[in-house]
């Protein structure tokens, strides 16, 4: 599946998903240079009561800051990390984000495991390769990766690992695990 | 280019004023990591690039992702897509999107490990 000459620039996209406050921004910051990126979205009905638009009824869009990080592997080969919005009302951004993505890291917090169900459902349905990284928060009970796999009802081929996204080495392991998984999926899909 | 900046509110000109209030263009479907490169062609048919489009053209002399363009210009993605759509329609930029090959992924894995 090689395209073009080897010096053709390549940009790859990795998504960082998971519930609100699970450490997505911290993960992106541990491993890459965070850059500002704003997007603007139509205010849906779901924003009513959250975004107070009374008196500014013509305002139908809102600006959302996204987590966006860049890792330069070499000249002409860059990996971009995009944090998916944590709030449910930004779901409609996901299709665009996940299009053509190399894969996704679903961050999980064992104290609020159900928060990552929507992300897992989404990537399973779309066929986007993903791994589950359990962010070990201070003070949270420790679980083995396999216990989390069972609790999340994950297929055996979905990698699950424990991590501490504040640590660069741990964040690195998470990304390497994902790209290795994506490579495996890619290789398996080739005749 | 210097712009009027308000520390809290950002640029004084509202983003959509930069694109004549439009929200739709041929740039709508541009992926965040699609790579934009200036073609070096001259504007034709009376098209005059806006100051923001001139900034884009000077930025993308080498392949630059859509997300990086938006980040560098500090403009919302939707606005940047419209600006890029115009430039593309007038053949001032080309858009590329290479897929990941096995070889590239292996290179990424090694590169990440070496970070």
From TrEMBL, chain A:
UniProt GO MF annotations: ATP binding; GTP binding; hydrolase activity
Species name: Streptosporangium carneum
PANTHER family xrefs: ATP/GTP-BINDING PROTEIN-RELATED (PTHR42708), GLIDING MOTILITY PROTEIN MGLA (PTHR42708:SF1)
Keyword Phosphoprotein: no
Family: Belongs to the GPN-loop GTPase family.
Protein name (database record): ATP-binding protein
UniProt keyword terms in alphabetical order: ATP-binding, GTP-binding, Hydrolase, Nucleotide-binding
UniProtKB/TrEMBL annotation, chain B:
InterPro entries from the UniProt entry: DUF742
Pfam families reported in the protein's UniProt record: DUF742
Name of the protein in its database record: DUF742 domain-containing protein
Taxonomic source organism: Streptosporangium carneum
């Amino acid at each position: 599946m090689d395209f073009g000459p080897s010096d053709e620039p390549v940009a790859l996209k990795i998504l960082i998903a998971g519930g609100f406050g699970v450490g997505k921004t911290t993960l992106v910051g541990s491993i890459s240079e965070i850059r500002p990126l704003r997007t603007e979205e139509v205010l849906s009905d779901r924003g009513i009561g959250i975004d107070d638009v009374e008196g500014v009824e013509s305002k139908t869009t809102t600006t959302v800051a996204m987590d966006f990080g860049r890792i330069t592997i070499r000249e002409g080969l860059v990996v971009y990390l995009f944090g998916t919005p944590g709030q449910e009302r930004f779901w409609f951004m996901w299709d665009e984000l996940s299009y053509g993505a190399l894969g996704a890291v679903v961050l999980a917090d064992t104290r609020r495991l159900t928060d990552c169900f929507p992300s897992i459902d989404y990537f399973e349905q779309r066929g986007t390769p993903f791994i589950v990284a359990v962010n070990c928060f201070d003070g949270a009970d420790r679980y083995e990766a396999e216990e989390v796999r069972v609790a999340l009802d994950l297929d055996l081929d979905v990698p699950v690992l424990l991590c501490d996204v504040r640590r660069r080495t741990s964040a690195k392991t998470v990304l390497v695990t994902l790209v290795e998984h994506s490579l495996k999926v890619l290789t398996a899909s080739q005749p | 280019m210097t712009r009027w900046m308000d520390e809290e509110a950002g640029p004084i000109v509202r983003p959509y004023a930069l694109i004549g209030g439009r929200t739709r263009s041929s740039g709508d479907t541009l992926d965040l990591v699609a790579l934009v490169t200036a073609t070096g062609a001259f504007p034709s048919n009376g098209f005059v690039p806006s100051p923001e489009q001139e900034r884009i053209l000077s930025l993308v002399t080498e392949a630059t992702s859509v997300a990086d363009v938006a980040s560098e210009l500090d403009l919302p993605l939707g606005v940047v897509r419209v600006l890029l759509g115009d430039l593309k329609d007038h053949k001032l930029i080309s858009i590329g999107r290479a897929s990941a090959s096995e070889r590239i992924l292996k290179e990424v894995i090694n590169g990440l490990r070496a970070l």
